[in-house]
Amino acid sequence: MASEKSKILVVGATGHLGRHVVAASARLGHPTFALVRDTAPSDPAKAALLKSFQYGGVTLLKGDLGDHASLVSAAKAADVVISTVGVRQIADQTRLIDAIKEAGNVKRFVPSEFGLDADRTGAVEPIRSLIINSKAALRRAVEASGVPYTYAWTGYFFSYGLPGIGQVLAQSPPTDNKAVVVLGDGDSKVSYVDEGDIGAYTVLAAGDPRAENKTLYIRPPANTLSHNELLALWETKTGRKFERVHLDEDAVLKQIRGQKLRTLSADTTVCSVTVEDELMHDMNVVMNFTEDPVPFNSILLSIGHAVHIKREHEFEIDKSAGVDASELYPDVKYTTVDDYLNRLL
């Protein structure tokens, strides 16, 4: 007789990543609950998303991080809580921890991480103050609570890292008359992962005792390649050659400090409005629009500096503290970088 599937609550369910976690949870047969602020939103796109959840057997629960009672009620319905809230709510997850403790029945909490390892990264400003410090503090709060946890590390999301063929500040492939910007020598190994696969690996690990109180490293082996290798693959697919412009560490740091950068505004052309919104919500980008705004490019570059210059995607997993998702779940048929690039042709 098959063991009973754990009940999973997803907080941040309608976000860029959250919707994939919800879909994976339902697809893998878990009774799935999605915490949403409004079960009948006026926005047509969000309403359609919630309807798709319900068609998939997902139960909608009304609540938010500012309503303690709603959090406790939602937590009582679940065995596992997975948070995919955006970076502006990272610190607010302490409220979720309090609710989980009060509910008393949750067997695993997966806080919203899905990026650089808060305890390992040497990322420079502005990303350190804006995001990394909050994530590290949240980890300490999780550990102090005594609630069993799993942290999820990922490389670049496909929808962020690949549309520009690995270029940190581009969201479309290079054209014939435009040079490709490469941070450093282009030989640092970089991990990329499809958002749907993040959802699948996270759900699989959330109830797995092998991942309890450890970091789950989601880095599918076929999706780890250098920027030079990624560009060479794209050149093979398109039959074109692209000039490279390399920025050394000093040049990248000068750019990060704000030289020749613009703050994000309605007419920003680096990314589309849709991509900007998704990046800010779920992909380690945060800004203050009203007081002392941080240049959007400098945030992206500080992440790129950690990955491409400091090679933070190149490491051996400490088996006492972490597990490799690909080793735990070798049967997962993940989407490859090659698959994604074919979509761009």
What labels would you give this structure?
345 residues, alpha/beta, 38% helix, globular, NAD(P)-bd_dom_sf, oxidoreductase activity, PCBER-like
Verbal overview:
It contains 13 helices and 13 strands. Strand 1, helix 1 and strand 2 form a beta-alpha-beta unit. The strands form 4 sheets. The protein has a 5-stranded parallel β-sheet, sandwiched between helices. A 3-stranded parallel β-sheet has the order 6-10-13. The chain has a 3-stranded mixed β-sheet with strand order 7-9-11. The chain is globular and about 55 Å long. Helices cover 38% and strands 15% of the residues. It has 345 residues and is an alpha/beta fold. The longest helix is centred in the middle third of the chain and has 19 residues.
Write the topology of this structure.
Blueprint: E1 8-11, H1 18-27, E2 32-36, H2 44-55, E3 59-62, H3 68-76, E4 80-83, H4 93-103, E5 108-110, H5 127-145, E6 150-154, E7 156-157, H6 158-161, E8 180-183, E9 189-193, H7 195-206, E10 214-218, E11 224-226, H8 227-238, E12 244-247, H9 249-256, H10 273-282, H11 296-309, E13 322-324, H12 325-328, H13 337-343
Keywords: NADP, Oxidoreductase
Protein name: NmrA-like domain-containing protein
GO molecular function: oxidoreductase activity
